[in-house]
Amino acid sequence: MGKIYKYLAVFLGVVLVSGSFAWADSQPPAVGGVLPEFTLPVPQSDEHQKYLGLAGKESFKISEISADVVIVEIFSMY
Fold first, then answer.
1. What pLDDT, in 10s, does the model give residues 1-55?
2. What pLDDT shows up at residue 76?
3. Within 13 Å, how many C-alpha atoms sit on residue 23's CB side?
């Protein structure tokens, strides 16, 4: 289970820095609120796709990852 955190953190960090997707909402969620649903590109590595349970897809939503817990770390870049 520890590997998923490492892969997801690296993957999301790269995606967030590259700005290759659009947010579902223009405002951040309120404290205690819910993260807006958005679509992310599937990792290019077949190994990472299989590990995350996303094989055969082009994009995915966080809720599609087959894990008990998914941690999303958001970096504020300005």
1. 566 666 666 666 555 544 444 544 566 667 888 777 889 999 999 898 888 888 8
2. 75
3. 10
Written as one letter, the residue type at 26 is S
Q: Are 69 and 77 in contact (CB under 8 A)?
A: no
Q: What gap in Å lies between CA 3 and CA 58, rounded to an integer?
A: 22
SS (H, E, C) the chain: CHHHHHHHHHHHHHHHHHCCCCCCCCCCCCCCCCCCCCEEECCCCHHHHHHHCCCCCCEEEHHHCCCCCCCCCCCCCC
Q: Is the pTM for the entire model greater than 0.70?
A: no
11, HSE (Cβ side, Cα atoms, 13 Å): 22
